[in-house]
Amino acid sequence: MTPRGTTAVDEFDVREYARTARGSHRAEIDGEAIAEAGLTPDAVHLLRVLRDLERGTLDRMRNLLVTATHKDARVTAFLATWAFEKYWVADALDVVLGAVGADTTPLSGPLRKSATERAERRGPVRRALAGNIAGEDIVAGHVTTGLVDELITQVAYRRLGEAAAALTSLVATLIAVKDRHVAFLAEEAEHKLAASARAVRLTRKALAQAAWPIGATEIPASDRTFFETFVFGDAEGRTAAARIGERLAALPGLGAEGATVTARLAP
Amino acid sequence: MAFDIDKYTTNSAAVGWSDLDFDVFDEHPLPENTLRTLRYMCDIEYHTTCYLRDLLTTPSHNEPEVGAFMTMWNREEFWHGEALAAVLAKHGITVDYDVLKATRLKLGWKDRLDPIKQSVMGGLVGNDFVAVHMSWGAANEWSANAAYLRMAELEGNPVLAELLKRIAKQETRHVAFYASQARDRLKDSKKAQKLTRFALSRFWGPVGSGVQDDAEVTHVMNHLFAGPEGRKLVRDVDSHIAKLPGMEGLTIVEDSLEKRGIAA
Questions:
Q1: Terminus of chain A with fewer CB atoms < 10 Å: N or C?
Q2: Taking CA A60 as the corner, what is the angle to CA A55 and CA A61, rounded to the nearest 5 degrees?
Q3: What DSSP character marks residue B160?
Q4: Which domain of life does the UniProt lineage start with (chain A) (predicted)?
């Protein structure tokens, strides 16, 4: 166990990432062309779910920052930029919804309340208390669950592109935005899990309690079911879910968690 | 005037300095006391994440306008930290992420309990607590703005002055947001006014106190605000705060100078 920074070289350049963050996508969205091509009800539905998930970023930020994660300046530098990019991703989705005259209000309805996801529904006080006990090793759990989440949404954007040809170029841009999130989180997860057995234990626990994608506990039950079915319900989706599981299982100290996550992506 | 959030988010950008010739510092390095103050400012800008955390534990961020602002504000302040770090780097002072992490780890239990305290308060007091946060934010941004402009003037180095003016310009927009939020939330609620007045007069301290060593806070206050000119600027900040509904007569910034024995 060597502390990070002595042997492992950080390949992801956070400063470079922050410097080249992607802001507004509005100039590249051809609203008229999208309106003319039209979107299927499923594509609109998926857009709304994704938009709500992207808009939930500040809740995620809060949950991370009330723990020791806020002390890791490299991670917080990433998060400042990540939140900015996600703000503009949500904005782009809103513009698309507006272009086809779809309802842009947040989705509402009864939530799914399963026992395994209870921990995900905790408020800031209980998270801060739990986070204080966990200490610095909890950062590993945050970057690992963050990684899984980004991989899931990447698949969702890919499916969106398949369902709506008019969105091909926008979807490619959004996936590229997420590529860098994935790169950073994967590298941090790798380092942090390799450095501490306790980090591995806490990460396993975080994965066992997670609701996917992150923020799903705030998405109405019927919309969650739609998302799971549309993104991961068919053969292609199941393959994509399996890949996410494999990628997770390859991280230091993790193994069986890969299959658990894969199984939970399409219940 | 209402704050135009769409305009703000659209124009929000990382402060730029690539067009500024920082090599000028090789020939004309900044003096020790200025570097010490810049170091303080740099740390505080990076520390914005910790304030963001406290704000996020209140119900305020669920409002789209507030959430949008916080996202942009947090990033802009991060970039102020990066810009100041670049100036410090030209003087051989490294502020890397590991150093910042060490500062944050040093904060210990107070820092760990803060979000809990904030959240419990937010839960007990509800929406009126948001007024405290917004007024507090306005007071901080007003003082930051005054500090940057004063520093630009005191040092007289044109490159540094230009950078600090760019930073101060962004702080002006932050002031506009916080002050308009504070005004709206205070004007309709006597309870919010009472609570805010109590919090500001009892607990407010110069930006960075509680995070930085006390000796550093006093150094910066002395450097920037000692003497009649400095005192005048501080009184200007106080007069802005006092114009918020229910805050008449508050002189929290001047009081904090008095408490530290900084001469007018």
A1: N
A2: 100
A3: H
A4: Bacteria
B212: left (phi over 0), alpha (psi -120 to 50) or beta: beta
What pLDDT sits at residue A134?
62
Among A169, A145, A101, A136, smallest CA distance to A248 is for A145
Domain layout of chain A by residue ranges? 40-104+111-265
Q: How big, in percent rounded to 5, are the helix, strand and coil portions of chain A?
A: 75, 0, 25
Closest residue on chain B to A77 (Cα): B78
What is chain B's mean pLDDT, rounded?
89
Structure tokens of A63? 């949950």
Q: Are B183 and B120 in contact (CB under 8 A)?
A: no
The 10s digit of each residue's pLDDT in A45-89 is: 999 999 999 998 888 888 888 777 777 888 888 999 999 999 999
Domains annotated for chain B, with CATH where assigned, are 29-259 (1.10.620.20)
Query: What is the Cα–Cα distance from B139 to B133, expressed in whole angstroms?
Result: 10
CA distances for B5 relative to A15, A22, A58, angstroms: 27, 19, 17
Predicted pLDDT at B105: 60
Q: Which residues in chain A have Cβ-Cβ distances shorter than 8 Å to B121?
A: none
Instruction: Report the alpha-carbon distance of residue A150 to residue A154 in Å, rounded.
Output: 6
